[in-house]
Amino acid sequence: xxxxxxxxxxxxxxxxxxxxxxxxxxxxxxxxxxxxxxxxxxxxxxxxxxxxxxxxxxxxxxxxxxxxxxxxxxxxxxxxxxxxxxxxxxxxxxxxxxxxxxxxxxxxxxxxxxxxxxxxxxxxxxxxxxxxxxxxxxxxxxxxxxxxxxxxxxxxxxxxxxxxxxxxxxxxxxxxxxxxxxxxxxxxxxxxxxxxxxxxxxxxxxxxxxxxxxxxxxxxxxxxxxxxxxxxxxxxxxxxxxxxxxxxxxxxxxxxxxxxxxxxxxxxxxxxxxxxxxxxxxxxxxxxxxxxxxxxxxxxxxxxxxxxxxxxxxxxxxxxxxxxxxxxxxxxxxxxxxxxxxxxxxxxxxxxxxxxxxxxxxxxxxxxxxxxxxxxxxxxxxxxxxxxxxxxxxxxxxxxxxxxxxxxxxxxxxxxxxxxxxxxxxxxxxxxxxxxxxxxxxxxxxxxxxxxxxxxxxxxxxxxxxxxxxxxxxxxxxxxxxxxxxxxxxxxxxxxxxxxxxxxxxxxxxxxxxxxxxxxxxxxxxxxxxxxxxxxxxxxxxxxxxxxxxxxxxxxxxxxxxxxxxxxxxxxxxxxxxxxxxxxxxxxxxxxxxxxxxxxxxxxxxxxxxxxxxxxxxxxxxxxxxxxxxxxxxxxxxxxxxxxxxxxxxxxxxxxxxxxxxxxxxxxxxxxxxxxxxxxxxxxxxxxxxxxxxxxxxxxxxxxxxxxxxxxxxxxxxxxxxxxxxxxxxxxxxxxxxxxxxxxxxxxxxxxxxxxxxxxxxxxxxxxxxxxxxxxxxxxxxxxxxxxxxxxxxxxxxxxxxxxxxxxxxxxxxxxxxxxxxxxxxxxxxxxxxxxxxxxxxxxxxxxxxxxxxxxxxxxxxxxxxxxxxxxxxxxxxxxx
Length: 881
Hints:
The protein is an alpha/beta fold. Helices cover 42% and strands 14% of the residues. Among the domains are: 10-94 and 269-338, Glycosidases (TIM Barrel, Alpha-Beta Barrel), CATH 3.20.20.80; 103-258, Maltooligosyl trehalose synthase, domain 2 (2-Layer Sandwich), CATH 3.30.1590.10; 376-516, no CATH class; 578-694, Maltooligosyl trehalose synthase, domain 4 (Arc Repressor Mutant, subunit A, Orthogonal Bundle). The strands form eight sheets. An eight-stranded parallel sheet has the order 16-15-14-5-2-1-20-17, with helices on both faces. A six-stranded antiparallel sheet has the order 21-23-24-29-26-27, with helices on one face. The protein has a three-stranded antiparallel sheet with strand order 6-13-12, with no helix packed on it. α13 (305-316) links the parallel β14 and β15 (321-324). The longest helix has 31 residues, at 682-712. This is (1->4)-alpha-D-glucan 1-alpha-D-glucosylmutase. Keywords: Isomerase.
């Protein structure tokens, strides 16, 4: 049953980077004109200074003052409500910033296990807390004079000063620092430290009175102490933390990080008090009626996603719209016991690829790419190689830590497998896991996850030496059945951390490694997708039927703040599979034109052939509609492309990476790419533009089809900021740039290349206003049925029908049209349309339909497409609305 706050359509807005609550208020008329029902806001809680995204929260119980604070948020929420709009808020329960501006984190740095927040975070307190934020070892920095001991007058604390950052000294070590110092301030500080507990110490510290003279005198003492041999090292060892080289994070870290980001620390939100403390404000906002929906970020990072969601649902009630950010692989569905409306819709992107990318064209591109790269390994083999690299290098510390927990989980008092075998067995299982994670809890695995683990374990056994099989079986046993009385806490911890490992490994291996290595068709490299395969129209229709049955209220996303490319860039790249030979020939010519810009480095030519292939595709995705004829060409494009290229090269982790930058290689590739925008390279620019035009035209029509399908398929359409006109962005931060918000035109604009942006916005507004008039269930729970197209246009149209309570909507959206377009207009070849017709089910043959785009009225079982698609490239027929 749909919640009472079910959105008609959401509009994702990225706060920060100039977007404040006041600026968002000014957009309300824009949202109304589009037909949006809910603003969908990125995280708005206080984050680290200068945060560009808000996922690095430092205070869950404060609205970020830089955005307008709680007062500004309330004004925005009230203004939305007055305009008849709702608000869906993005929340981040998995992690916080491991920042000194995070008071909870600062407290555990200062007090260790004595801190009232010591159990708020996923920290292994069997040893000091590792803080991997140094550029070298602590002792090296101390020897060079870059570490000092200071007294911070504003904080009334002693601490290490490193890189202009202040790391507090635990009060128990103050006596060591102040030993032999008779200054009155020193005596006061010793007395303060002797207070013992954090609460009593806080009162004593606040009562300290410190003059500038006291400060200066103590500074002199501390400077002298810091120069004593061994003093800084000894003091460092007294702390509940260790400041270490950031490169050590992959090998040894005492807290759970978000993916590979040590600046984000995992939160233990499964603890009731942590949940209550971290959700106090957001629950108040819901109870006050200011927020009607919540989007839960990175649900797979939690120790107990199911338990968390039930607790959250109980707290917010049945009428709040709940979504989870969850990457679903092909044929994977959300656990049926999750009390949510669905996902944020990443999987819909993959479905659109099924509908729009010709399978035979993709196969031809794959053959050409393999011939160029010399790498014919199957996709799965390449994914396993990337996962193996993550498990053995980037996440080696997590694997080692997990093996240590597993070794202590044996409730039978018999010998466990060796640590080395346990590590190898963990790698073997995670390597074979085809999804991001399973969901075992205290009761064990669900029936579905039992089958999944059994299949995973069998593949792991087959791929491993016989000696490793007992360790694999041992680990599988730890995941099965209810928790025993003995060793329950350790076993619970193993289950949580084992499952929390799968998501980061899959994400970093696939999204942030293989998607930058395997560049056959860049438009397919999106989360939840398989860049080696597309399903075709039949698979698309089958998937939409599944959505209607299992996720009718989930979001339908085509662009997000995390997508590798904007929806229109992706749709343009899909067109390469419609004319692969044209593209392949173009790449050969451009490589020849630019071969003089190749550089021969000690580790090989740069860029290598497969990198050239990728560069030209990436360029096509962002190439301006008017190309070199645009008055501001190339404008900001070289800078944007260069930023993207740095990320793409390092994420691939082949000849350079974030931890070990190969400057010579990067500079060579950047120099090669720079020639794309050099007016002196006119032969290339002219050839690239002329070759691109057919793909550009077909891509624009793909974009419009993608948009119409999103607006009428089962679910709730989500519009990412600015994409109502166009989104040709690259990966973040390019896709989070400042947006030029413009109202959609009131009438149908020109249907050509120049009018594309206005036409797309008009299409969205027209369809969303229809959704406002139609029964709410029509486009969510309404029946989904493919509709037959007969004649030569049969393979060039996506056709389906939605039906609910006497209301009917029929969608007609073009596909594979590159060879059917001529000139500037985005209209299909009338010759093909004249010989084709839409054949409706006999039970609705008597219905009269109105095309909401053209105004045409049609009826009968066979509808001629020539007239229907004469003035517009798409059609949305409605009856009973």
